[in-house]
Amino acid sequence: MKKQLDELRTLTSHAANRLTETGMPRVAMVQGSIPEHQLAAAYEPMINLILRGSKSMSVGGRTLHYDPATYFVMSVALPAAGVVRPSETGEPYLAVSLTLDAGTIANLLADLPDTGKRWGDEKNAFSIAAVTAELLDAWVRMLRLMNHPSDIPALAPGYEREILYRVLQGPMGWMLRDIALPDSALARVNQAIQQIRRDYALPLRVGDLADRVAMSVSAFHRHFKSVTALSPVQYQKQIRLLNARTLLIASGYSVTAAAHEVGYQSSSQFSREYAREFGQAPARDAMRIASEMSL
């Protein structure tokens, strides 16, 4: 697999120190040291493959570490914090990602027999697995298209299906399958997640969410916590705080205005929860990040 990784590193050597488009739908790359505040975010469902260096991802109370020997799958949108590290020889972190599209997965499943091992509903919707030569091969063919952009419309969809197929064959295949099946517990939790993300500034009524996805309140709580490592209320709080941080840093909101914009009635409660989440009071955290960005 060394030869495949070397080619992938060459193909992505022009990636910037931010999410960099490749020309292929849903495929992006990134290279270098990424600021901590950018790695604390609401991540979209994705397959992430590290080509150099390593990364830690923390969701709820669970932290996963992965490197070029493994790949990461997140099958629902989750608030998470990350840390990236260079390689042991000091070369910059380098990774590629494929944002998951449930419709594409559903179309692929329609053409396949039952694939992937399902471990039951009491599993997180994020994990790591050992990378395979077949998966790397599919990534190589996909990323070679950057050198042949006229081929992208015809060939990229097939290579995307192959990447998804290789993941479906692995230990996390159940995540992809279940997110594309509307009656699975994972898909129902995903419906609730999408509503929380849309309406994060509104009061959260867990009973209404449970009814909407056809679950009892107790079953909904259990499945939601199993999938996300967070309760529905904790999930909403993290989404609120992440959005407030963006308002403070990128839009110049005051602490009070940011708190009210994301749904807090009390600025003091907002400041306490913000400091607990990010380690500093809102105004001080925003000033620190602004200072780092100006260097």
Q: Globular, elongated, flat, extended or rod-shaped: what is the shape?
A: globular
Number of helices: 13
Order of helices and strands: HEEHEEEEEEEHEHHHHHHHHHH
Assess the beta-strand content as a share of residues: 15-25%
Strand order, largest beta sheet: 1-2-9-4-7-10
- From the N-terminal CA to the C-terminal CA, the straight-line distance is 39 Å
The helix content is 40-55%
Low-confidence spans = none
Largest sheet: 6 strands, antiparallel
> What's the alpha carbon Rg, rounded to whole Å?
20 Å
- Mean pLDDT comes to 92
> Which class do the helix and strand fractions yield?
alpha+beta
**Total beta strand runs:** 10
Supply database-style keywords.
13 helices; four-stranded antiparallel sheet; about 300 residues; alpha+beta
Question: What does this protein look like?
Answer:
With 295 residues, this protein is α+β, with helices and mostly antiparallel strands. 49% of the residues lie in helices and 18% in strands. It contains 13 helices and ten strands. It has a six-stranded antiparallel β-sheet with strand order 1-2-9-4-7-10, covered by helices on one side. A four-stranded antiparallel β-sheet has the order 3-8-5-6. A hairpin with a 5-residue loop joins strand 1 (20-21) and strand 2. It is globular.
Question: What's the arrangement of secondary structure elements?
Answer:
Layout: H1 2-11, E1 20-21, E2 27-31, H2 36-39, E3 41-43, E4 46-52, E5 54-59, E6 62-66, E7 70-74, E8 78-85, E9 94-99, H3 102-110, E10 126-130, H4 133-144, H5 152-169, H6 173-179, H7 185-198, H8 206-212, H9 217-228, H10 232-250, H11 255-261, H12 267-278, H13 282-294
Helix pairs in contact: 1-4, 4-5, 5-6, 8-9, 10-11
